Amino acid sequence: MAAVILQAKGLAKAYGGLKAVDGVDFALNAGEIHALIGPNGAGKTTFVSLLSGRIAPDAGQITLAGQDVTALPAHLRVRKGIAYTFQITSIYPRLSVFDNVALAAQSQGARDLAGAVGVALGRVGMQGLAGQEAGTLSYGHQRLLELAMGLALKPKVLILDEPTQGLAAGEIDDFGALVRSLVPHTTVLMIEHNMEVVMDLAHRITVLNFGRVLAQGTPAEIRANPAVQAAYLGTDDAAA
Amino acid sequence: MKGWLFHLAVLGVLAVLAVILPAYHANNLARVLVLAVFATGYNLAFGYTGMLSLGHALFFGAGMFGAALPVTLWGWGGLPVLGTGMLAGGVVAAAVGVLALRTKGVSFMIVTLMFAQAGYLTLIYCNAVTGGDQGLVLPGAARQVLGLDLTQDGSRLWLALGIYAAALAGALGLVGSRFGRVMLAMRENEERSRMLGYDPYTVKLKVLVISGLYAGLAGAAYGVFFGYAGAGFATVQYSILPMLYSLLGGAGTALGPLIGAAVMFWLIDFASGLTNAYLMLVGVVLIVVVLFAPRGILGYVRERWLPWLP
Ligand SMILES: Nc1ncnc2c1ncn2[C@@H]1O[C@H](COP(=O)(O)OP(=O)(O)O)[C@@H](O)[C@H]1O
Ligand SMILES: [Mg+2]
């Protein structure tokens, strides 16, 4: 049994009467790539937002490496090693690519800022674009910049919310290789709609549906799970 | 490097002006430089960090009375009261910020305005010590700093230039630092910044205190230079002025506030010689600038020709 790095117990969040996340128990093993899947509106973004501290839970508990972080504000969770990349690209459009990544690198105390930025940009293949204004990048590059910012934080747990959305096929392959190269040093939790990517990359998969955990297991187990097939894989998403 | 040289050259030009300007304009330049110190601090909060404050008149007023009261109450001299005034601006900014920074955007503007208004009324109410509507006149004996007699136009201008140079260097150092990058990050995208590990509240509070120290120093200098402290300097007009200077000169540029203060000052000086409706002329100029150079004069220059300008 691998060590658990991030754990949620009985996590819940409702919007009005809508239970977006409804009593989720979840454990992320150190060093794994864990995919979070489920139909639109299943509560995936809400769930990882609770983990990262962007929103406060109604109930439940979150521990990072055994330490209770439920009451910790988001910026302190980031400093403790939980990095979050936004589903809707969120960068600093009027700052340079360098400054975008530097903000992440200096947040975790990089001494050699230029070096740290160069390494992070290199990993996503953007080292030539450091001087460009971020808002003028193509959409795919903005997604990769967001990823570079996550990497520059040198997180223990990297949470990616639909990272391949809008990337071209070639970019998706590069992305897969990159994520694989991060583990086991970093633990990756990613929300992903592209089933090919999920089945290819993930060591384990959690399926959310109506804010609850529908199933959890290896890709093979998930593929074989009749409840998942009925709720999710049977739909058009599986064709992806 | 290029940036530092450029700004050094600007200070050199100001020094030459200090030597050659006739008394009337030398006196005005001293006034503009002190207001530029105020606006430079305002711009750190507004132009670089994105905080739209209407409370800065209070920090300016706190600096002015933080300098004047030790003079009238305990007979302190010019140099130490520049320090107490500066400190007063910072302390008041901290107190306002702790509460006001729980809000943002328009609410922040309104809350800071309320604080400033309350501060102004307090100054009026405590007329036994502050002089109320009358204000306080500072005796010539208290207007001596480092051997400079500030009742004289020339020494006033040299000290004003020295203070502005220090203020500019401080601002350049700050915005060029790692913290300066975080300031921009708050202005551009607060939520993203939080998720990079920065607490918007503490970052903005720090900047507001620094901005308050600038305002306090400017208020103190204004009082000591011109020998008068009045509650009128804590009215909303004195919050709007540094904002206009920043917008006109270029919000988020280091020299913008000086340029804005100078242009506005001499524009009013010039226009009021032409017509009684000079404020209308000033308004027209402001509108033209906003239409054709929405980032202000220096913002325009930076966009077009000097992208390296801090
Ligand atoms: N801020 C919000 N206010 C109200 N409802 C929300 C909010 N955020 C999400 N929801 C609702 O919660 C449910 C889960 O949303 P989300 O977590 O974004 O799902 P997913 O990421 O799986 O598509 C959806 O029904 C969504 O409409
Ligand atoms: Mg989502």
From TrEMBL, chain A:
Q: Which organism is it from?
A: Fuscibacter oryzae
Q: Name one GO molecular function term.
A: ATP binding
Show the Pfam families listed in the entry: ABC_tran, BCA_ABC_TP_C
Per its UniProt record, what SUPFAM superfamilies does this chain match?
P-loop containing nucleoside triphosphate hydrolases
In terms of InterPro entries, this protein maps to: AAA+_ATPase (IPR003593), ABC_AA/LPS_Transport (IPR051120), ABC_transporter-like_ATP-bd (IPR003439), BCA_ABC_TP_C (IPR032823), P-loop_NTPase (IPR027417)
* Segment forming the signal sequence: none
Cite the entry's keywords alphabetically.
Answer: ATP-binding, Nucleotide-binding, Transport
Organism taxonomic ancestry: Bacteria, Pseudomonadati, Pseudomonadota, Alphaproteobacteria, Rhodobacterales
**The protein's name:** ABC transporter ATP-binding protein
Task: Show where the ABC transporter domain sits.
Answer: 6-235
Q: Which residues form a coiled coil?
A: none
A GO-annotated cellular component: plasma membrane
Q: Which PROSITE patterns match?
A: ABC_TRANSPORTER_2 (PS50893)
Keyword set includes Transport? yes
Identify the domain of life.
Answer: Bacteria
TrEMBL record, chain B:
For whether the record's keyword set contains Protein transport, the answer is no
Q: Where in the cell is it found?
A: Cell membrane
User: Which membrane topology term applies here?
Assistant: Multi-pass membrane protein
Q: Which InterPro entries match?
A: ABC_transp_permease, LivM-like
Per UniProt, which keywords does this protein have?
A: Cell membrane, Membrane, Transmembrane, Transmembrane helix
Molecular-function annotations in GO? branched-chain amino acid transmembrane transporter activity
**UniProt key word Membrane:** yes
Q: Name one GO cellular component term.
A: plasma membrane
Main localization of the protein described in the UniProt heading:
membrane
Q: Which parts of the chain span the membrane according to its record?
A: 28-45, 82-101, 108-130, 157-184, 205-231, 243-267, 279-301
PANTHER family from the entry?
ABC TRANSPORTER ATP-BINDING PROTEIN, HIGH-AFFINITY BRANCHED-CHAIN AMINO ACID TRANSPORT SYSTEM PERMEASE
Protein name in UniProt: Branched-chain amino acid ABC transporter permease
